[in-house]
Design goal:
The protein has 69 residues and is mainly α. It is built from three helices and no strands. The termini are close together.
Length: 69
């Protein structure tokens, strides 16, 4: 396994963990009340969801396009 593949795997796992925490944060009672009143999630929850999505997508991209030499 090359260095690029390891980086891709780490990014994918990190993205999955961040998405998990973001998804769990959306179910918190305070977060649901805020979303009900304002129509949007808190900044921290959005950072988890967006950061997790970007990291997971980057990890998948690196794993798919990393070439072994």
């Amino acid at each position: 396994m090359g260095t690029k593949q390891i980086v891709g795997l780490v990014l994918l796992v990190l993205g999955a963990v961040l998405l998990y925490f973001g998804w769990q944060a959306t179910d918190a009672p305070l977060e649901q009340a805020r979303e009900g009143l304002t129509g949007e999630y808190s900044d921290r929850t959005m950072q988890y969801l967006i950061g997790g999505g970007v990291a997971a997508a980057a990890g998948i991209g690196i794993l798919l396009f990393a070439r072994k030499r």
